[in-house]
Amino acid sequence: PSEPIRAVFYQDPSSPASATTPLGESIFTFFEGFGITSSVVVDSVYTVAIILVALLFYWLLTRIGNSPFGRVLKAIREDELVASSLGKDTRLFKIKAFMVGCALMGLGGILWLGASGFVNPLSFRPNITFYIFIALIIGGAGSNTGAVLGGAVFSALLFLLPQLINQNAGQFIERGVTPDTIVGALAPIASADLLPLVAYAVENMASLRFVVVGLLLIYLMQNRPEGLLGHRSEVASAVDLSERTSRPADARPATDGGETDE
């Protein structure tokens, strides 16, 4: 089906006029008693599914990061030569990390399909890759929480901010007085008239939103290059070494070369 969530409620998810499934009919009938339409029910279920998958991804990545495998990846990130000198096959670890990332991106693609209903090569233009990089830069690379926060901040600035400005500020500005060019918007500033500049900004917020994101990136690069939540203090060991007792005198050294820690 083109939309996995709609397949639960409709017999033919690709058709807007499709008949409902028995489960969908019972669910729609229940919520109609509260004045909630079927489209709202489907959108709400899809939103809940995305949140649950995001929480699952976060839990999985946190577990991986705290595992011996994740600690090796952190060591490779900080200094690959040191990790290699300690006997770790850095090439193999990077391949495994790439495979995990591809698997998660594939699952994310399923959710993308559920939202858009179709996928074509033009849906994944280079700007999508740059969007992801910018979100990670804002939140902080190497931090799962930072990745979530960066994605939320970036999405709010890029998609929600223009809508909010157009809905609220746009109704107080006459569209007829909006300048056509930036020069026409800046010229009245000499006479202390800021209304043309504000009107121009509101009218062209869809394009100026990238300027806002760029200014935020410049500020972060100069004042907080690690991002909002990047490079937080982490425990290097899987256990609290401060509470470990001294090594017994009759203890024997390890003979497996530390392979079990991988």
Question: Can you walk me through this structure?
Answer:
This protein is 61% helix and 0% strand. With 262 residues, the protein is mostly helical. The protein has a domain at 125-233. Helix 7 crosses helix 8 and helix 8 packs antiparallel against helix 11. The protein is flat and about 85 Å long. It starts with 5 loop residues before the first helix and ends in a 39-residue tail after the last helix. 11% of the residues are buried. Keywords: Cell membrane, Membrane, Transmembrane, Transmembrane helix. InterPro entries: ABC_transp_permease, LivM-like. It comes from Salinirubrum litoreum. Its main location: membrane. It is a multi-pass membrane protein.
What characteristics describe this protein?
262 residues, mainly alpha, 11 helices
Hey, roughly how much beta strand do the residues contain?
Answer: under 5%
Which series of helices and strands comes N to C? Answer: HHHHHHHHHHH
Helix content: 55-70%
How many extended strands?
Answer: 0
Quickly give the structural class.
Answer: mainly alpha
Mean pLDDT metric: 77
- Alpha plus pi helix count: 11
Main beta-sheet strand count, sense and barrel state: none
Q: What oligomerization state is this entry in?
A: single chain
> Any idea what the radius of gyration is?
26 Å
Distance separating the two termini: 41 Å
Overall geometry comes to flat
Q: Would you identify the regions where 5 or more consecutive residues have pLDDT less than 50?
A: none
